[in-house]
Amino acid sequence: MPIIAPSLLASNFLRLEDECKMLNESNADWFHLDVMDGMFVPNISFGLPVIAQLRKATTKVFDVHLMIEQPERYAEDFKKAGADRLTVHYEACRHLHRNVQQIKALGMKAGVALNPATPVDLLSDLLQDIDLVLIMSVNPGFGGQQFIPHTFQKIRNLRRMIHDRGLDTLIEIDGGVTVENSTSLSKAGADVLVAGTTVFHSSDPKATIHTLKNCN
Length: 216
Known about the structure:
The chain is α/β, with parallel strands linked by helices. The protein has helices at about 15-25, 50-55, 75-80, 95-105, 150-165, 180-190, 195-200, 205-215; strands at about 5, 30-35, 60-65, 85-90, 110-115, 130-135, 170-175, 190-195.
């Protein structure tokens, strides 16, 4: 079964404590936390103080996705705020190997995210050092976008690379994940499904999470 990581970006910020309680009681495995700086992406979301408060409300894994420039400036701060996994963007890191090693040295799992136009082959020389590859299936910055179909080919290509090297790197999909495409994503090779709008705009979020979890 896939790991389900609901994105808090789509939650009701006026009721964050209730949203956390719902996720705690659900089949969700991780909390996915999208941090945006208005520079790398054309949007600003939330940052360290919010994550530190959310950390008090759950023991589930905090999967923090940094859509920011120069993420190395804040890696230690996100660890202190409660991040278990920290993902940075290939496109935002001039010295990506150094960024990955920094994250791991701080005791977190290291992820690298790829925008829709970035091929998975560019991670060939670093794949053995990465715990997770996050494939953006929409352009980063806003929730509720339509899934980009070419993502399926990227998943298959990456799954082949991981298999051929005997690695256990996880493949995470972020953007446009729905109940309708979740099975196809899992069969293509995705390990982690990030779902924001699909979960939090559902009439029954816990039931939706359960359906995503059992999409195989």
